[in-house]
Amino acid sequence: MLTLLVYASLLLHVLTFIAIRTLQSKVTYQESQHQEEKRAYEAMLGTILEELREENERLLNGKQSPKVPETPTVKEKNSQPDAIAETGEDKELESEYSPPQPAEAEDDLSMSNLGRVLQLADLGLSAAAIAKQLGMGKTEVELILLMKKNGEKNRNS
């Protein structure tokens, strides 16, 4: 009876040792994957920071980036000069004003850059094509796609 208990104990110890070794190898593998992903993120963020520095230097030197679209400014009614208000021309301006009509592509206007990048990626466009179409940096688009890929990988595992 004692020998049976010794063999059972030995067998349990061996199985425990194998389980611990397997778990240790899985943890080591996960840590190496994490380090690789961390390096990829750091490289991507480094390139984004470098692009931002270059763009800031261009702006400081007086050169405007071609990616930045100019938006027209809208003046409020109260910001009109007093001379126009006194002559009655403000009533004419009010009658000419018509509120903007909602566009058919309202979803495109309200969708964030993240959503637009993911939508275009689902259509099969490359990161460079998406960046060009949306006026974003290529590395920024690549970072968004990398985060999406890693998020899907984490959900699957």
Automatic annotation (TrEMBL):
It comes from the Bacteria. Residues 57-110 are annotated as: Disordered. Pfam families: DUF6115. This is Coupling factor for flagellin transcription and translation. It comes from Terribacillus halophilus. The lineage of its organism: Bacteria, Bacillati, Bacillota, Bacilli, Bacillales.
